[in-house]
Design brief:
Blueprint lengths: L5 E8 L2 E8 L2 E5 L1 E4 L11 H7 L4 E3 L1 H6 L3 H6 L3 H5 L5 E3 L3 H5 L5 E4 L2 E5 L6 E4 L1 H11 L3 E3 L10 H21 L6 E6 L5 H13 L4 E4 L8 H11 L9 E3 L5 H8 L5 E4 L1 H6 L3 E4 L2 E4 L19 H5 L2 H9 L3 H28 L2 H11 L5 H14 L5
Parallel strand pairs: 4-14, 5-6, 6-10, 10-11, 11-12, 12-13, 13-14
Antiparallel strand pairs: 1-2, 2-3, 7-8, 8-9, 15-16
């Protein structure tokens, strides 16, 4: 840690940790969820909405901001905090996931990656040093190293990708010079425990202020995700924050916290809101369903968010099905309130030493809608049946 950053663990409950990560723009109480503001904006919301909802940290996307409006312009306008009107902590990813997801638009080599913009097809080049320059000029509190997010099921290719990821992490650290910005390393290795353990040990040796776990929620099953966390977290420094990238389903957050993860980000709550899916303690509610056309109840009983305090399911359904922008905004407010209140409840349960029972009760009540999970559950039920005689 630099003088401007510190990490304190206040209480552990099993592997779950109640902690605080101090940054130049304020503390992040952990476990925490970071709403995603890809282009320096959480879609349909304003910074004052996020403050009222209790968000303590936001994520912005280096790849997208580099392409539009450009990191130089953001720097000239006072840096990312001033540009987007948010005075709390910000985390910028490295853009590695976006670049490597381009597939047919990029070429990878040992020194970096050349890619074409998804906006206009123009050619660009990311190297570890270039990414650090961009992130430093954006000025977020937490920056991520450039890594290679490879497909999770190919061990031979993953071993090659790890070699690049580790070399690039070392170069990123050497290039990084802002004392008011914490640079996090990113553990990769797909779903293979030995690769994950190796990656965690190598990156721990580079002594980053914090560590991210990347390359999950990209096609593996939930069971594989949880097993990967089991194989990774024990090899990460216990006295530094752990960040699971791109994971935001409530059930996944509960399981990851139980394995020692402190920070999360994901577009899921905001993206599904814009499609009319609302998060509740019983699972997702599809507000487009005709059965809500005359439902006078709020989305969630006893929910304190503005949407639930003010409007009925019937009205929200009307807005969503009519394509009204306010419907997208109200749904987003509710979903982020749900996620941020879930994190607050998790912190309380850890502090009280009751997280294990909370985990059991939450997962029992929450109906998972992920098709892959339903398939796994059906498979397990079939396998549990007695063999035909």
């Amino acid at each position: 840690m630099t003088a401007q950053f510190s990490f304190q663990i206040h209480r552990s409950d099993g592997q779950a940790r109640r902690s605080t990560f101090h940054t130049p723009h304020g503390p992040v109480e952990m476990p925490a969820f970071a709403p995603v503001g890809t282009a320096a904006n959480v879609k349909t919301l304003e910074p004052r909405d996020l403050t009222e909802l209790g968000a303590s940290i936001l994520l912005a996307n280096t790849y997208h901001l580099y392409l539009r409006p450009g990191h130089e312009r953001i720097e000239r306008l006072g840096g990312l905090h001033s540009f987007m009107g948010w005075d709390g902590p910000i985390l910028t990813d490295s853009g590695g996931y976006q670049v490597f997801s381009l597939a047919h638009r990029r070429h990878l080599d040992a020194d970096g990656v050349t890619f074409r913009s998804h906006i206009d097809g123009s050619a660009h080049r990311f190297t570890p040093e270039r990414v650090i320059e961009i992130e430093e000029r954006l000025g977020a509190d937490i920056a991520m190293v450039l890594d290679e997010c490879a497909a999770p099921h190919d061990p031979d290719y993953l071993a090659q990708a790890l070699f690049r990821t580790h070399a690039w992490a070392e170069r990123c650290k050497a290039a990084h010079s802002r004392p008011d910005q914490a640079l996090f390393g990113i553990v990769q290795g797909g779903i293979y425990p030995e690769l994950r353990a190796e990656s965690a040990r190598i990156l721990a040796g580079l002594d980053f202020p914090g560590y991210a776990i990347g390359g999950l929620a990209v096609g593996e099953t939930k069971e594989q995700m949880y097993n990967t966390l089991d194989a990774t977290c024990p090899h990460l420094p216990a006295h530094k924050p752990r960040y699971l990238m791109g994971v935001g389903a409530p059930e996944d957050i509960i399981e990851a916290v139980s394995r020692g993860v402190d920070l999360f980000d994901c577009v899921l709550p905001t993206r599904i809101a814009r499609n009319g899916a609302l998060l509740t303690p019983a699972g997702r509610l599809n507000i487009r369903n005709a059965r809500f056309a005359e439902d006078s109840r709020p989305v969630q009983e006893a929910c304190a968010c503005y949407t639930c305090r003010t409007f009925s399911r019937a009205y929200l359904r009307h807005l969503i099905t009519s394509g009204e922008i306010s419907g997208l905004r109200l749904a987003t407010i509710h979903n982020l309130h749900f996620m941020l209140q879930l994190m607050e409840q998790i912190r309380v349960e850890i502090a009280q030493g009751t997280f294990a029972s909370f985990r059991t009760s939450f997962l029992h009540a929450y109906q998972i809608t992920d098709q892959r999970v339903r398939h796994e559950q059906r498979r397990r039920r079939v396998e549990a049946l007695p063999a035909a005689s």
